[in-house]
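Dear support,

I submitted the protein below through the web form. The confirmation email said the job was done, but the results page showed an empty box. After a refresh the structure appeared. I'm attaching both so you can tell me whether what I see now is the final result or a partial one.
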Amino acid sequence: MYREKYGRQTAAAMYQVNKPVAEVAQMLLAEGATAEQAPALAQTYYQQHLSRGILATKKKLKEAIMYQTVGLVLAGGSLFLSFLTYLLLDDGGSFIGFYGLLAVGLLALLKGRLDKRSAEATLKQEEGSHS
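What the results page shows now:
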């Protein structure tokens, strides 16, 4: 009797550690899949594994874009507020610079840019190997 759920979970774990499709097919045969089912199931599970990887990378890409947007808003807001306090400055008054907000915004912008570059490279590599 073929244990489908166990076979699928084991195949996913094997693909995580870069086992070949043929080795997964052999495991499925040992678990009770028929000789006709095993290669097709192994290939199906491999395609599902690749699809999960692509979806995870796309999620990272969206998060990177969000970091860039938040960083841009924070840095822009900091500059706007600093400029506003400068305009409202009376003779001899104190100028308030929002440097902490600017630093956080620039760090978020940098993190978003680096994460986006990494996610795009990974996505390009995964989609290239998927086709």
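Response: this is the final, complete result; the empty box was a page-load delay. Residues 4-130 form one domain.
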